[in-house]
Amino acid sequence: MNIQKHPIVVLSGPSGSGKTTIVKRLVSAAPVQLVKSISATTRAARPNEVDGEDYYFLTDEEFRRRLAEDQFIEFAEVFSSGFLYGTLKSELDRAWSRNGWAFLEIDVEGAMKVVHQYPQAVTIFLRTPSPDEFERRLRRRGTESEEIIQKRLATAARELELASRYRYVVVNDQLDQAVSEICEILRSEENSGNAG
Ligand code: 5GP
Hints:
Bound molecules: guanosine-5'-monophosphate
Distance between the termini: 15 Å
CATH architecture: 3-Layer(aba) Sandwich
Radius of gyration: 18 Å
Number of domains: 1
CATH class: Alpha Beta
Number of helices: 7
């Protein structure tokens, strides 16, 4: 069978940025068929999480066995938590065999490893509003101490630095707006012939 290898879409962003909701919305709303990659992880399943749907929950030993067999496109230890997360090569094949675009929601370290192997990957960074805007809002709210404000600003600045490594940056201010911007990106990628 001649399988068309559609582009890989990689989405990253700080936790708590509403990423999960956006991912769900995109899978049903996107103008191209996105097939969400199911990552493997060594962390334990949370209540309501289903093995093989949310993640492939693996023991540390099983994860490392698969690593040794070169089954991953990328993997990373996320948040220095001691837990490993990775994208299996078989997830790309699953997307392509369904004539879809593999859709990876992974951290920055993993994203850069994907780009290294697939330079055509469509990388999107979801970020909170700009540090200036963020600071104005924080101060207007007047509920945070100066110390907290400074910490939040430092985090926002770090995010901005990471965002510069992605092809697209979408500000996740309003959910609907972010989803439609990403749909627009995918439409333009499809039209630009980035389809294999
Ligand atoms: P959680 O444990 O909250 O489900 O996920 C924590 C973080 O792990 C997420 O922000 C996500 O970006 C990252 N992550 C999930 N799957 C993968 C993966 O396959 N590879 C990498 N590098 N990061 C992942």
